[in-house]
Design a protein that fits this description.
alpha/beta; three-stranded antiparallel sheet; binds pyridoxal-5'-phosphate; Aspartate Aminotransferase, domain 2; 14 helices; Aspartate Aminotransferase, domain 1; 414 residues
Length: 414
């Protein structure tokens, strides 16, 4: 028998190879805040005396009782295994209890999904609420991640700008002008990153009523809930507007309250169907959050609020210093923020001018100029949907803060 060569398989129809990343992912912008922070850290590592106002994280260590709980958790073999995708049952219950204690909002443990930080909570919440083309109203200046998370979920961010003349807070009239028949969600963040604005209880009630009248979802990001100064009267949206409970998704986490940014624990609270869908999504994306981090978060949310109260005293002191020092600079106007740990000055008066022989037109150029000339890292307003501003985090030591803003005063005259 003569051997015959095996016939070769039919060749696939030829089409041009396309090895580019997808348009959807390729169009995501790098996080501008992380970029500034990384640049400042790299310059510091080279030995340059850079002062960084870019970071969105407390400059305090995680409380010792939280770290101790994590160390113990590491030694327990049961924490070397997967947990249910939506989180440890004890942590979900503790989050429900903490929510009642801190904001007065009563929820069941079954309404909680434990996520890898507030960021994953935001991504999953939008992915779960939106169909392609659905619009989300995003008050600007906004935290840089929101529009990217909305677009990734197929949604369309619709920005509504509130400037410093309105304390960076949108009005119901502005929201109504932005509403279309595709509007599905209002994004709400108070206290706000990047502006530090806090909505009053009355302002929240008015916005909640508008959400209810229009049958929308509201996603409220409460990650800075404990950083409110001057006894300013505010509250949690679903508590002030109880009729919205079934249409509200809360995003929160341990990062800012317990100085736990690196531990990566956040959560979603929402109605049962949304929570079930988000948990299913998470079960395929990341499974559970690290057990050790979940046990640490359990210790944090079950413990006292002493640590955040201590941080708040320091933040409040720095807030007053930074605002008054910034306002001494010609061309800078900084309203007093009522919450979080950010100052958000308008720098319109410094733009369209020569500085040291260089014409500077935008806040992005100004931030680069400041880094180069004063070795001070700040984030330009372009990152937050509002050119003409800078964001300065005051989560840094008092001496560095005074030295850094002092350098700006010297650079621009103050
Ligand atoms: N929401 C806001 C407004 C934030 O500023 C941040 C972090 O900077 C987050 C959510 C997410 O926090 P994390 O993912 O660190 O828990």
């Amino acid at each position: 028998m003569s051997a015959t060569a095996p016939s070769s398989p039919p060749s696939p129809p030829s089409r041009p190879r396309d090895r580019r990343v997808s348009q959807r992912i390729g169009s995501i912008a790098e996080s501008a805040t992380l970029k500034v922070d990384a640049k400042a850290k790299a310059l510091k590592a080279e030995g340059r005396p850079v002062i960084g106002f870019g970071a969105g994280e407390p400059d305090f260590p995680t409380p010792a009782y939280v770290v101790d709980a994590a160390v113990e958790a590491c030694r327990d073999p049961k924490n070397h295994r997967y947990t249910p995708a939506g989180g440890l049952p004890a942590l979900k219950q503790a989050i429900a209890d903490k929510t009642l204690r801190d904001s007065g909002y009563r929820v069941e443990a079954s309404q909680v999904v434990v996520t890898d930080g507030g960021k994953q909570a935001i991504y999953e919440a939008f992915a779960t609420m939106l169909d392609p083309g659905d619009e989300v109203i995003v008050p600007a200046p906004y935290w840089t991640t929101y529009p990217e998370a909305i677009k990734l979920a197929g949604g369309v961010p619709v920005e509504v700008l509130a400037d410093e003349t309105q304390d960076y807070k949108v009005t119901v009239d502005q929201l109504e002008s932005a509403r279309t028949d595709r509007t599905k969600v209002l994004l709400f963040n108070s206290p706000s990153n990047p502006t530090g604005a806090v909505y009053s209880a009355d302002e929240i009630r008015a916005i909640g009523q508008w959400v209810e009248e229009n049958g929308l979802w509201v996603m409220t990001d409460e990650i800075y809930e404990h950083l409110v100064y001057d006894d300013f009267e505010t509250g949690s949206l679903p508590v002030l507007c109880p009729a919205l409970a079934d249409h509200t998704v809360i995003v929160n986490g341990v990062a800012k309250t317990y100085a736990m940014t690196g531990w990566r624990v956040g959560w979603i609270i929402g109605p049962a169907d949304l929570v079930k869908a988000a948990t299913n999504l998470q079960s395929h994306a990341t499974s559970n959050v690290s057990n050790v981090a979940q046990v640490a978060a359990l210790a944090a949310v079950s413990g006292s609020l002493e640590a955040v109260e201590e941080m708040k005293v320091a933040f409040d002191r720095r807030r007053r210093t930074i605002v008054s020092m910034l306002n001494e600079i010609d061309g800078v106007t900084c309203p007093e923020p009522k919450g979080a740990f950010y100052a958000y000055p308008s720098v319109a008066g410094l733009l369209g001018k020569e500085h040291d022989g260089r014409h500077i037109d935008s806040s992005a150029d100004l931030a680069e100029y400041i880094l180069e000339k004063a070795e001070v890292a700040v984030v330009p307003g372009e990152a937050f949907g509002s050119p003409g501003y800078l964001r300065l985090s005051y989560a840094l030591g008092d001496d560095d803060l005074a030295e850094g803003v002092g350098r700006l005063q010297k650079l621009f005259g103050g």
